[in-house]
């Protein structure tokens, strides 16, 4: 797949994803809230590391800027 996540978007995804993972692990959340935070955080971090967002590709969005 073509890269569609730019630098600022990538940084925000890593920061927010990391915060959600920490929230799920350390904040004492239980049940669905804990798993939702972990899953959403992991998806954000993984898409940032891969620099590809399938939802962006589906809608033709790119935050990479012009090349």
Q: What are its keywords?
A:
single chain; 67 residues; mainly alpha
Question: Brief description of this entry?
Answer:
69% of the residues lie in helices and 0% in strands. It has helices at residues 7-26, 31-50, 54-59.
Write structural notes for this entry.
The protein has 67 residues and is mainly alpha-helical. The two termini are 17 Å apart. The relative contact order is 0.26. 69% of the residues lie in helices and 0% in strands. Helix 1 (7-26) packs antiparallel against helix 2.
The tally of helices reads 3
* Main sheet attributes: strand count, strand direction, barrel closure: none
Global outline: elongated
Order of helices and strands: HHH
Range of helix content: 55-70%
Q: Return the structural class.
A: mainly alpha
Uncertain stretches: none
Q: Count all strands and give the number.
A: 0
What is the radius of gyration computed over CA atoms, rounded to a whole number of angstroms? 13 Å
Hey, roughly how much beta strand do the residues contain? under 5%
Mean pLDDT: 93
Report how far the terminal alpha carbons are from each other.
17 Å
Secondary structure layout plus pairing:
Blueprint: H1 7-26, H2 31-50, H3 54-59
Helix pairs in contact: 1-2
